């Protein structure tokens, strides 16, 4: 930027000579103006020379008083000229000061590649992110989120799910029991840390008649501890009860989920299996996303990876629910001749590990900030 | 459950060409079908596959290798010539008389081993060795390489014969994971039936061996030799005894021994091995008693008597109770029914007569006893799941007698002693064809013919048929088939789940009714999610930690005081280990532990948070409702600096105001309202919205610095202090040192509310400017900011819209001892006009006057 472009149209030096009685004052003003370097000081100089009681007006008044009549007019005009010359000088200096300040400001520079003062963003845990993703996938097809307590009674965790005490099916899940007094009523039994999210099925059906379409994520506990098993892990349970729900609907729901979560090219395979609270039951494999079914370490060469267990809600579960509903004075609503349903459960941790190639389950619960930051 | 492919193949008759000739390829084909039918195959393990040219040879002589201590020169005889072989094993047997000398397996030159190794003549330390003598691992039998395999002349393998053929090799072992509903698959016959059903379309049939022992039946009858009495027919509905005499106890031949080993059992002697083979064959556990030892030659099935005990096979003396079912003779217990035999009645080398037990014990009974004794045996595993009391039981007994007679000689006394006081009838079940399709949803529907064929292939028989249904008789080997839905599942498995086309379920627009859902828990979930998001926005990294912890870790945070006021954690009855033995009552200890680990990783400036549950036992006598035990909390720990440029300076270090600021944001974000003083308003005490912040106490928050700790309490209360909803502050220096944490760690922990946040609403932004007045005064230092704020607000001045504290000044050189200087900025505004200076000043004067009546203040 050129300073001269902002310069006033004329400067004191070029202008016509001032009347001698003002010339010295104006020269002094010019000197004082150029001596100051800040705007407030500049304004002080302005006031001293050009203000109401300034030097120039003082000189003008004195000169008028002393001058003979005919000269008064000339002296008056010369005074006004001196004042406007002074204003011009002031304006020019003010501009120059502004320009200099702007110039100095614009002369600042930094190394833009130096790191900044960062307000570090936190991160959601991988399990939270995957759980939310699962919830939203199922929300797309009409599921709502439900929940239940982690400390459960044996009634909800086992009995109502057709796993009575003395049933070998209980061996499938190594249970943590709590030291507590026995619970009252038929919903009693001992207190356990729930071994699966399936008790939420019972709680939901006791609370509402069909149609039911819920997804229930949460922590579950089993007495296991090795690189692939953790005594605490996270499951997500699904339950649909309505009229005319069939195994084909179950398969369609799971296929929808698998393709939304693992990608549109995956397929699922259902293998018959056994769970006490579903019949028919199946375990579900997804085509290996790591090797495109060529066989790899993660799918143990089979081309398939097991992701969840599922099945049609066992009629015995419906019977338990209706019996308990009646005991609580609620109308029965789950006659298996009228409604049918399916349920499924999967490990959120397992989904997270498969999706992101995490190879040690224990990392998920190690409280390591670096792990959280990886998925920020 | 391990299944031998060789054995299976004897039971399944298949037309030629259905399966490949190669045993491994054939087994893989069968595996695929089994998986499709829901039989989980964990592994398919070839045994001795690729072994050829290894023969049985007799040891005729041995001497040390002249140049190597550990090598032996062995003369072996292959039936024609004697050859010298170099052997490195430590267990080369001494030669005996020809014909009775020990035998070994000699892989001759030209032989191949399962590893692929081809043998030739090779020089070993200067002496040529034609082939080698083999250890079990080299033969592909096991991983045992302790020494060479030694055979006895009784093993029935002729000198010079092919070892593989004589030993029943090659074989393929299926390792199956059998679900608890399918006890029938705990034996080869059941698996064979499943394979037959899997290949039903290819014409597979089941072939069961016929008993041969009629030829060796003695004229005297079993009933004369022994007596069986069942005293508890509920626990033992059937007990069958066979009596065999003239037996000779010896090791089983190598073929049987190897088979048992492949199936995961330890060979004992020929009689015990026979019972195990029969069990693996049918899935029915059997037990052989030495008849001479049975006092009174009788078996009494009865409950144990009070104080009675018995020493089991594993040499453990076990106290029994009247809930345990005992197999006794005339005087004492000889076996715990269905669980384990007694030491004193077991088959021993001198045994010549046995009573063979084949019984059905009630599953629940066996399970309770096994659990009480902490014994899980092959037998209890099967009885618990339910054995076949009819055909299966009899088949197993016959098969076992056959094997015993074959391996141990002797005779069987005529007639079985069959006590069956409570016959278990075969069930019948109706299947409605339409119901099948309703449940499976297959298109096109499964035809009547397909449905019938699927079930008859599994051994079900049709009793009656109608247009829309049929009644099937269920084999008693399938205790899992008790309802129509069970038959539908069998049809489904047979059709194959692959062939059911997926369909996305119709969405009822009525939708799942939210009314039924627990509204409070839904709100809690939402608030917990919000808490997570808030913390992340405030720079925290979320972690998820175990709900279980150690009592010590909980106690550690309270050790700075007596800590008696802390809640008692709920203990686990059967913890994995001590450090996971109680449920946490605080999130803080876990977070501090995580913080320490992260610092050890070399990280600095950490902010960790967790939204999780703590477990507190509610007081009250109504018993515990599990739903009331857990409370969801948001907690965080932080240390180090605020954000800084390049390198933190001392003024960048976090202090109390940082954690207080974070807590204010969280409280606000979660819908709590911080008020300056408790108000005696009767709101729902379970769902407080208004909270006050107070100085923390060492008795309730001993983990906080005594001067830099605060509690958050419900503000709406009558007489007593409101419930504690959280705390925050600096972690107590003593605790910090004990946990090896660096200077200044801050923490907070707040209950996530179950109450929805107040609905947001639109309010017009102020249209008229306000004005503010500064207020500077001296006041006693112990009067807290909230008290002053409360006093100012008590003026109820409608024009006062905001009170801000600009300065809390305590420099002793300017402020008298015991005093502090405060500078406040008070904002005044009217919503409908611009305030005049006069109006604002009048309002301000009223507010200041109120303050002055509340506290002695010295205006400045
Ligand atoms: Zn793969």
- CATH classification class of the largest domain in chain A: Alpha Beta
Rg on CA atoms of chain B, Å: 41 Å
Largest sheet composition of chain A: 7 strands, mixed
Distance between the termini of chain B: 90 Å
Largest sheet descriptor of chain B: 8 strands, mixed
Spans of at least 5 consecutive residues with low confidence of chain B: 510-517
Q: Tell me, what's the shape of chain A?
A: rod-shaped
CATH topology of the largest domain in chain A: BirA Bifunctional Protein, domain 2
Proportion of residues in helical segments of chain B: 25-40%
* β-sheet strand percentage of chain A: 15-25%
Helix content of chain A: 25-40%
The best one-word shape of chain B is elongated
Distance between the termini of chain A: 46 Å
Assembly form of the protein = heterodimer
Ligands bound here? Answer: zinc ion
The CATH superfamily of the largest domain in chain A turns out to be Bira Bifunctional Protein, Domain 2
Order of helices and strands of chain A: HHHHHEEHEHEEHEEEHEHH
Strand order of the largest sheet of chain B: 30-33-34-39-38-37-36-35
Number of helices of chain A: 11
Total strand count of chain A, please? 9
Number of strands of chain B: 43
Please characterize this protein's 3D structure.
The complex is a heterodimer of chains A (376) and B (860). Chain A has 376 residues and is an alpha+beta fold. Chain A folds into 2 domains: 10-107; 126-375, Bira Bifunctional Protein, Domain 2 (BirA Bifunctional Protein, domain 2). Chain A has 11 helices and 9 strands. Chain A has helices at 20-35, 39-50, 55-66, 69-106, 126-140, 154-157, 199-207, 247-262, 315-327, 348-356, 369-374; strands spanning 144-145, 151-153, 191-193, 212-221, 232-242, 268-275, 278-287, 304-313, 340-347. Chain A has a 7-stranded mixed sheet with strand order 1-4-5-9-8-7-6, sandwiched between helices. In chain A, strand 6 and strand 7 form a beta hairpin. In chain A, helix 1 packs antiparallel against helix 2 (39-50), helix 3 (55-66) packs antiparallel against helix 4 (69-106) and helix 5 (126-140) crosses helix 10. Chain A starts with 19 loop residues before the first helix and ends with a helix. Chain B has 860 residues and is an alpha+beta fold. Helices cover 25% and strands 28% of the residues of chain B. Chain B has an 8-stranded mixed sheet with strand order 30-33-34-39-38-37-36-35, with helices on both faces. The relative contact order of chain B is 0.06. Residues 510-517 of chain B have low confidence and may be disordered. Chains A and B meet through helix 5, strand 1, strand 2, helix 7 and strand 4 of A and helix 8, helix 11, helix 13, helix 14 and strand 30 of B. Zinc ion binds at residues 288, 290-291, 295-296, 298-299 of chain A.
